[in-house]
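> example.struct
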């Protein structure tokens, strides 16, 4: 930098100590006259507000539990422009800009005072100071909790299902509940978690989903519950698990709860884990045992072509999907009923694999058996690969 050039640019206007230290290398500082921050041409008093900013943030943070934080700020456009202007004209290349300086100074005060660490990567809370209005807003990182759920009853959807007519506002059709289904796995699990964390709202990220009328058994299905704007982060997950399971009254059960993160949500959403199903099927007439065994054996290892079933056509693209049936075996046969175990690729439509869906799924159990069959009850008994 060039001190002569800086003096020329300043043209008699003066800077405060903090601004000089941010912009000017040590050896040149004695050539500049210091003034009080209120009289500083550049920051216009901002530099003496640091303690006040820290106080405002501290007040705002009351009631939030966190271990790491970060400070961000908004600075008057005009100050930023002036700073850019003089540093460019005076050839100042290395300096601490005012925004960074404010952030770092407030962070220093607060981490000392509150005993918390600053995290640039993944802070629990980011406080944004609008220095123009002395106003602080908080961005609280969501809390992610991983677990597996078991759904022991039929008729409950995995996630909240707003009423199609009123979209959740409440209308005559939904009896003013705003919902198509009274409850869901999501709501049953989230209730106690929201209570424990003081969270504002939540999102449920399941690793796939079963049909509403299918049970989810075995070890359960992986999920991550995202709690938005949590006040409390240090919760006892073992205790929470017990509370959820007591509240769920045997409809749903959670296990293996642990803290998680956003990356895991992405992983679960992308995962294509094969599932083991138990399908109780019912045929239009008595099922010949030997023939069923032959058919089921022949289905092992095949690929089925499934055109989008009509029951999901309103929310899935119309196209043909190829799905692999890895295992298929007969568990029981009795009269018109049979129990079949199927290990199939993620996203296989099992009901249609059995019924054939009027030719939209081929081959199908019904087609090969030569007797129309349908799934009367479906359970997911295992999610493989997790
Ligand atoms: Zn200043
Ligand atoms: Zn409604």
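> example.seq
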């Amino acid at each position: 930098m060039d001190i002569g050039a800086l003096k020329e640019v300043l043209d008699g206007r003066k800077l405060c100590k903090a601004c000089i230290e941010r912009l000017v290398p040590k050896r040149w500082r004695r050539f500049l006259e210091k003034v009080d921050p209120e009289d500083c041409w550049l920051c216009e008093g901002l530099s003496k507000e640091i303690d006040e900013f820290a106080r405002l943030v501290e007040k705002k943070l009351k009631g939030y539990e966190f271990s790491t934080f970060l400070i961000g700020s908004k600075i008057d456009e005009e100050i930023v422009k002036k700073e850019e202007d003089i540093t460019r004209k005076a050839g100042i290349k290395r300096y601490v800009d005012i925004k960074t300086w404010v952030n770092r100074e407030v962070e220093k005060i607060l981490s000392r005072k509150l005993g918390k660490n600053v995290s640039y990567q993944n802070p629990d809370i980011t406080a944004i100071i609008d220095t123009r209005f002395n106003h602080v807003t908080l961005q609280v990182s969501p809390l992610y909790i991983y677990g597996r759920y078991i759904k022991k009853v039929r008729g409950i959807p995995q996630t909240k299902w707003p009423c199609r007519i009123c979209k959740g506002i409440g209308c005559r059709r939904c009896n003013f509940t705003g919902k198509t289904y009274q409850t869901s796995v999501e709501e049953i699990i989230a209730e106690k978690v929201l209570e424990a964390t003081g969270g504002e709202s939540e999102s449920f990220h399941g690793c796939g989903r079963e049909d509403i009328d299918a049970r989810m058994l075995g070890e359960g299905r992986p999920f991550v519950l995202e709690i938005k704007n949590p006040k409390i982060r240090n919760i006892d997950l073992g205790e929470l698990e017990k509370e959820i399971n007591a509240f769920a009254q045997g409809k749903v059960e959670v296990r293996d709860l642990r803290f998680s993160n956003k990356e895991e949500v992405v992983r679960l959403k992308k995962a294509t884990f094969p599932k083991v199903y138990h399908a109780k099927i019912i045929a239009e007439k008595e099922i010949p045992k030997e023939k069923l065994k032959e058919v089921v054996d022949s289905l092992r290892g095949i690929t089925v072509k499934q055109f989008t079933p009509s029951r999901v056509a309103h929310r899935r693209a119309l196209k043909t999907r190829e799905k692999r049936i890895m295992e298929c075996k007969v568990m029981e046969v009795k009269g018109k009923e049979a129990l079949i175990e199927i290990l199939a690729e993620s996203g296989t439509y099992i009901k249609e694999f059995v019924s054939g869906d009027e030719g939209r799924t081929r081959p199908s159990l019904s087609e090969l058996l030569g007797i129309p069959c349908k799934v009367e009850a479906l359970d997911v008994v295992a999610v493989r690969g997790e």
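> remarks
The first strand starts at residue 15 and ends at 16.
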